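In the previous lecture we treated proteins in isolation. Real proteins rarely work alone, and many bind small molecules. This record shows how such a complex is specified: first the sequence, then the SMILES for pyridoxal-5'-phosphate.
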Amino acid sequence: MQTLRDIRCIQRPGIAEFGWGHPDPALLPAEALAQAAALALSRDWRSALVYGADQGPGCLIELVRRRLGRLEGNMPAADQVMITGGISQALDMVCAQISRPGDVALVEAPTYHLALRIFRERGLRVVAVPGDSQGVHVDAAEAMLHMLQSSGERVALLYTVATFGNPTGSTLAADRRYALAALARREGLMVIEDDAYGELWYDTPPPPPIFNLTPAGPIIRLGSYSKVLAPGLRLGWMLAAPEIVRRCATSGVFDSGGGINHFTAHVVAAFIELGLLDPHVERLRTSLGERRDTMMTALARHLPSGCTWNPALGGYFVWVRLPANIDGAATLPAAEAAGVSYLPGERFFAEGGGHHYLRLSFSLLPLEQITEGVARLGAVLRRA
Ligand SMILES: Cc1ncc(COP(=O)(O)O)c(C=O)c1O
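The predicted 3D structure, ligand included, written as tokens:
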């Protein structure tokens, strides 16, 4: 008989799970969310429990605008904001609106592996653009765009996790952000900026979002409450040109069901109104920053020579490069037998490669398990 599960990530006993890019449940603000839910229901339950406005509830749209304005000095207009069911839902929705099957999606190499599935399920052909520790090469993206166009292909979008990216943790340098915004404007290339991790910086804030560099340009910025509040909320926001927001909000799904996750949106609005979000994000930065430090120290102590990794200035991940004779996927069974797991690098490459990399997430485990897990990984890699 099939066993039905309630949750996605099951931590296997005895294994240090570095594979899941999920927050430690200990970091989820259950009591504060209960307080917010009580407020959302007590002050106006009729507004919270009916079908919601297609673009999302005005109360949350206003709070998102004002918070971004305060944090970034750039307040989007109300018709540039839409409440989404998180970045995954927004990516699928945007693809449905701006692309046709057979179009090309340009992505970074490597990139967030599960976005690749969403693009492919929408019939897009995924083409990888090379990058380095400073993010995607904008010149290469431009050359690729022209080459594809001259062979008759339609490039629907360029997708980038520009800030503390998944899987590398790297951030698109400020000059490349300006260059990418200029390319988008010049060529009418739709850039989708996945900003899942932008608020989770541990040393210094990242450069400005690409969207803010050209608010009237063809940029769509996607934010999420999954990483800064709780993934189970299934809530996020989209910033885009009013025409894109209108097209998404008037699509059949919204026409039939109203705004997405409407009650949750009211709870998050109450959470922000109660002044709970900023201190929570601050606590996350401290706690995740400690986990990052612990992982860095453990990597330096336990990984054999020939392994290198990024400094992980924010987000959830460390991207480890292995010596050329070690394959991440082939080594995984031995690693799990030794009590540590990770994601092999090849999953993040749209067109192959990445065999000598692995992604470690420091967001799920407490400090002592991070240290122990990295020690086990070091022992496995030394044997390999
Ligand atoms: C880069 C990136 N984008 C999107 C998501 C998923 O976002 P959401 O939970 O808002 O759908 C993740 C989750 O791991 C991610 O790493």
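Summary for your notes: The chain has two domains: 16-28+278-383, 30-273. Residues 16-28+278-383 form a domain with the Aspartate Aminotransferase, domain 1 fold (CATH 3.90.1150.10).
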